[in-house]
Specification:
about 325 residues, globular, Beta_cellobiohydrolase_sf, cellulose degradation, carbohydrate metabolism, polysaccharide degradation, hydrolase activity, disordered N terminus
Amino acid sequence: MRRRFRTLMAALCALPLALAAAPSAHAADPTSLTSGFYVDPDSSAKRWVAANPGDGRASAINNSLANTPMARWFGSWSGSIGSATSSFTGAADSRDKLPILVAYNVYNRDYCGGHSAGGASSPSAYASWISQFAGGIGNRPALVILEPDSLGDYGCMNQAQIAERQSMLSGAVSQFSRQAPNTWVYMDAGNPAWTDAATMAKRLHEAGVRQAHGFSLNISNYLTTGENTAYGNAVNRELSARYGYTKPFVVDTSRNGNGSNGQWCNPSGRRIGPATQMGGGAEMLLWIKAPGESDGNCGVGSGSSAGQFLPEVAYKMIYGY
């Protein structure tokens, strides 16, 4: 980082305040160590535009999607995970920008939903994977969204499976605390239409959110920023009343410009939302799910697989039809 010394000194000076508030195990603020969010040069939208320069949709997708900072998702497809996260955060660091990473490889991933089923082969394999994930980031500044849907996806799980998942998530947070001190980790808390605030607060606490920086909302969903902000505040009221602390939260706004029509899997008529930015009623509004990437073989993405880039869906999402 070009500004590493100056910003590091500022972070050190602020250390007593950070410890007094005790919101997480991390004292450093990665947003103060960087000069804005990182635009992924290898996003699905970027790759599609590069491969289809003569397509009539390319200009709109390039201007409205490909050049907006958004998260990169990491899972079994990422190869050597430590090398993958090191390469991504290193590229961002060389530009003095803040990268957003999604860890999406928990054992029994999407166990109840099924559209994105998969993940590590065992809890121990996941522990090794997430340790390497954190180690690859190291001291570089980063934001990490930890395992989307993992705390909402309890509907068909028994208590032993729930406890197993909680242990994996709390272990993951510990790895970031030890190996990635300039990373803010957000445990995913689903969305307002999935689980009531009291239940989600209990799940977050039991999975170790006290040691994380905060929690994330609306990932891969379409609910409005206002609905999510109200829900995040309600979760914090429950955390405060039950456990004596609150947490910052972020909202995925990548596809919530028209709000939800009640469907979550590739619904028609949706629109991109506010671009990645600080504030907006939450700590940050982030593009976490890349617009145009399929939710699975469903809705307007019939015949596609989860994560596949669909240019027509992306194009229509820009204009909201």
